[in-house]
Amino acid sequence: MSSKRKVLLMGKSGSGKTSMRSIIFANYIARDCSRLGPTIEVEHAHVKFLGNMVLHLWDCGGQESFMENFLVSQKDQIFKNVQVLIYVFDVESREFEKDLRYYQSCLEALLQNSPNAQVFCLIHKMDLIEEDKREETFKRREAEVLRYSELAATPLQSERQNAVCQCFKSSIWDETLYKAWSAIVYHLVPNVGTMEDKLKKFGAILDADEIILFERATFLVIAHAVLREHKDPHRFEKVSNIIKQFKLSCTKMGSKLDSIQVRNSQFSAFIDSFTQNTYVMIVVPDGNASAPMITMNVKNARKVFEAIETKP
Amino acid sequence: MLRQKALVDVLGQVNTSGVDGSWLFNKEGLLLAYVGTEQKEVASNVSSALLASVWTALERRANDLKETILVLEDGVIVCTLVARSMMLAIRASKQTDLGLVRAKLHSLSAYLEQPILSISHDLG
């Protein structure tokens, strides 16, 4: 399997494709995104992910004239050999119907040219919707997207399941962006299953509540093991978001983040650089857990995980 | 891998007949585990740091230091090296016979030697 993944980023003009790409992969903070101008045609970005995997991001400009081009004259070029399509919808869009039709055409083109691609839809800019209406709006939009996905897939009679895609709500202003991208990335990482198994074992040895593995550059969650349930389902993305911000401020000061320890009377949490491409976070239910002991065990586990990562 | 629970169990086994505390820490003085009665004046991680600094100070003067015995106002603390990189210390009351305390220290360090050696060997 080639370690290069072609990822298409599509959606209507101004829906926030370039913004989210910049935040996740180019260390922008949400505030900086107002400086971004519209994307002309296609911007290519090669992003190293997990060391040996390269994500080849095709950030496709969303203005209608470009869209027509993509779907007609550049159809082969754009939609061939795609591993992932990420389609971004603007939740506030006044012409959602029209967006959906474009989506349907894109999906059809994709199904013809790369039938094995996976499709993810992001309902973006959720922060613009009032908090108590978010869930409802998202549900409604999701239903429509799924309906159009079916429409695109049925005439081809293909067996593929991916056409009926997964939807995520997202916003660059909170952790939902990380949640969506973590879920996408999860599908791209090889050996995730093995990693999670090993993490579980590692967690049992450490008597940990939870162990999370983050990708080093983006701080997206790659794998996690939960040994004791926790009531907050959004904690991973929150941690991703907070630590990444902190890491960026460290970089601004010219220093590199190596490890963080947080403790109170109920728990201790350790974030430590792990393999070449990852950070690990360990949460133990004991406020007096010994840091050198955890560090030592982390060092010992490093080799095992490095071996899994480099496995072809 | 070093299991905190297992380590605590092992360290706790010496805490009988006059012995009331045992530490395992690295040469920098960072505490891995402490089992015993918590002193009011000095926390266990502080005392491990102090013991390590006493050890390094003495080691600078005498090559190949094997063991230190600190006789304090209200007790004794004996301390030795385990697996070249870790330190083991146990505290006993003043009435306890020193021979017994040392015997406990050495049998505990002999017991821990191999496991800890294998862990630090993994670290390379």
Name a few traits of the molecule.
heterodimer; A: about 300 residues; alpha/beta; Rossmann fold; Beta-Lactamase; 2 domains; six-stranded mixed sheet; five-stranded antiparallel sheet; 9 helices; about 25% strand; B: about 120 residues; alpha+beta; 3 helices; 5 strands; about 45% helix; globular; molecular adaptor activity (chain B)
Structure notes:
Chain A is an alpha/beta fold and 312 residues long. Chain A has two domains: 4-186, P-loop containing nucleotide triphosphate hydrolases (Rossmann fold); 192-310, Beta-Lactamase. In chain A, 40% of the residues lie in helices and 23% in strands. The mean pLDDT of chain B is 89. Chain B contains three helices and five strands, in the order αββαβββα. Chain B has a five-stranded antiparallel β-sheet with strand order 2-1-5-4-3, sandwiched between helices. Chain B has one domain: Beta-Lactamase (2-Layer Sandwich). In chain B, a hairpin with a 4-residue loop joins β1 (19-26) and β2 (31-36). The longest helix of chain B has 26 residues, at 98-123. The interface between A and B is medium-sized, with 16 and 15 residues.
Secondary-structure element sequence of chain A? EHEEHHEHEHEHHEEHEEEH
Order of helices and strands of chain B: HEEHEEEH
Taking Cα atoms only, what radius of gyration of chain B do you get, to the nearest Å?
A: 14 Å
Give the low-confidence spans of chain B: none
Overall tally of structural domains of chain A? 2
Task: Provide the spatial order of strands within the biggest beta sheet of chain B.
Answer: 2-1-5-4-3
CATH architectural category of chain B: 2-Layer Sandwich
Strand proportion of chain A, as a percent range, falls in 15-25%
Whole-number tally of structural domains of chain B: 1
Helix/strand class of chain B: alpha+beta
The helix-and-strand class of chain A reads: alpha/beta
Mean pLDDT of chain B: 89
Strand order of the largest sheet of chain A: 2-3-1-4-5-6
